[in-house]
Amino acid sequence: MPDQTLAIAGLGAIGLRVAEAIDAGAVPGIRLTAVSARDRTRTAERLAGLRTDPVVVTLAELAEHAEIIVECVPAKAFAEVAGPAIELGRIFMPLSVGALLSHIDLAVRAQATGARIVVPTGALIGLDTVRAMAEGKITRVVLQTRKPPAGLMGAPHLVENNIDIANLTEPFRVFRGSARDAAQGFPANVNVAAALALAGIGPDRTEVEVWADPEIDRNVQSVQIISDAGEAEMTMRNIPSAENPKTGRIVAQSVLATLRRLTAPLIAGS
Questions:
Q1: What superfamily would CATH give domain 4-122+250-263?
Q2: Structure pTM?
Q3: What are the angstrom distances between the C-alpha of 265 and each of 37, 253, 262?
Q4: Mean pLDDT, range 159-180, rounded to an integer
């Protein structure tokens, strides 16, 4: 079968890592054909070491150049990538999952166009368990996110509520509420909350706590689930990306693993 073509929106800590891996042949059956970034000169420099030569286009044009669109841009640019991808019937893989909650109508539109929205697990653990439990009845889902203060700096929720975390000496809870509100208050930090909500009982029933913790050097995600199939407690301690402490190193690997599921002849996990 011919390779499936891939376009990447954004060449930051995640997008560039995915581009380099695909270019190196890390995922058989996937070929990089297009990228998009704000600074074309810098983009050309970043792509200079690749064996392939993907075209550099605008966000809106990406879907015209590939069958699979991976979105790695700030949440405010989400719709610019997502809209054309859905309209052209592409496989759309968003990392700004929190923004997807505000554009959930895309899922309805995808039914009409033949598009698919595939959300990577990202920096979380156990989404396969959550999906399986959701086939029955889940009564409660709680996510606790703990990050070093640097990983939360500039979050809208902190700015709007004048919460200063610059000189913390002990863990401090900066948010408690629903996954929907968490996604709006921390668009660059808790996409895991949105992914968890979509896999389970929805953004309004999924409970989230966000902690700024000066005593840790990793991003810690802990999930508790109660369902008619049993109870689960899962914790992931992610090493932050060297380029962007707001995200984990594993996120790019999660994208690659999700791409692999699109072409692999054998898949393990629900």
A1: NAD(P)-binding Rossmann-like Domain (3.40.50.720)
A2: 0.92
A3: 33, 19, 9
A4: 97
